[in-house]
């Protein structure tokens, strides 16, 4: 396969992420734990927090399912694709052309990877581990710290691939934690639009409850995930339902494609057009759900310094938000929070009443709350 630099809204995904999904599908929730890296730039150090690996598996699953629905294609590196090749559901998606395996030419991104490694080593503690790993590899083709090598060295390699081939890279969750303070990926319409939907959904939920229950209501599962789970009767259904939603949300996927084209070409007119669509959605939600019942509802978000103010008149804005792409985004913002969906997913995994299921449920609630 040849990656086309002219194809917007495609994504480069870790085989590691697909491996998590394959293991979840075949073996169920993992009983192991994982290490989440926490970086303290002020203290120039880092430490680790424990996560259930079952949560990491679900995080990987959620990310992947959303990308099935709204991406044009999902690209993986041929070098490590074998780690998920025993999963029938993923193989089926490959046969449909949604997952595409590409043989990257390593010599094209080696120099870029070196530069990105430097950017990811943002504390002296991380820099020291990376240096020891590189020295040990050069001397003995072994590693001092395999986990940190996978996070930093491996992650830098994937970011370099994405940079050279001009494709947005979505990291494995454990890599993602390390990258949060090193924003070096290309702009991505999909990620920023879903962030907009999630942010405004949780803000609405906060104002839609009274007393202490408002704190609990700030949990919000990504709306596409809730829909997929609710329409599934077993684990394998998750993938077939995601394909069905792909057809249902073809308008949003096309909108994201044109938005990404504008970002990639720095087309200020096209970017402005898409931003105005989101502004219109914000204004509609604010007018419909905030003024009389709750007072001012701040729906601003950090997307190109976007403000909720808009020049479109309220009656016209109300009308246009009932049809087309605005209606689609409105409906996603107003999707239910997802408590029942998480419980249903654990039931599909036969972990509804287990101690492991309870731990994973609690971590999902904690990590998807704001």
Written account of the structure:
Residues 208-217 and 291-323 have low confidence and may be disordered. The protein is α/β, with parallel strands linked by helices. The chain has 2 domains: 11-179, no CATH class; 189-367, no CATH class. 59% of the residues lie in helices and 8% in strands. The relative contact order is 0.13. The protein is globular, with a radius of gyration of 21 Å. The protein has 18 helices and 6 strands. Helix 12 (250-264) crosses helix 13 (268-289), helix 13 (268-289) crosses helix 16 and helix 17 (339-348) runs antiparallel to helix 18 (355-367). The chain has helices at 15-27, 53-70, 88-95, 110-120, 124-140, 146-164, 173-179, 189-207, 213-216, 223-230, 237-248, 250-264, 268-289, 291-294, 314-320, 324-333, 339-348, 355-367; strands at 11-13, 33-40, 45-52, 74-77, 99-102, 168-170. A 4-stranded parallel sheet has the order 5-4-1-6. Strands 2-3 form a two-stranded antiparallel ribbon. The longest helix is centred in the C-terminal third of the chain and has 22 residues, at 268-289. The protein starts with 10 loop residues before the first strand and ends with a helix.
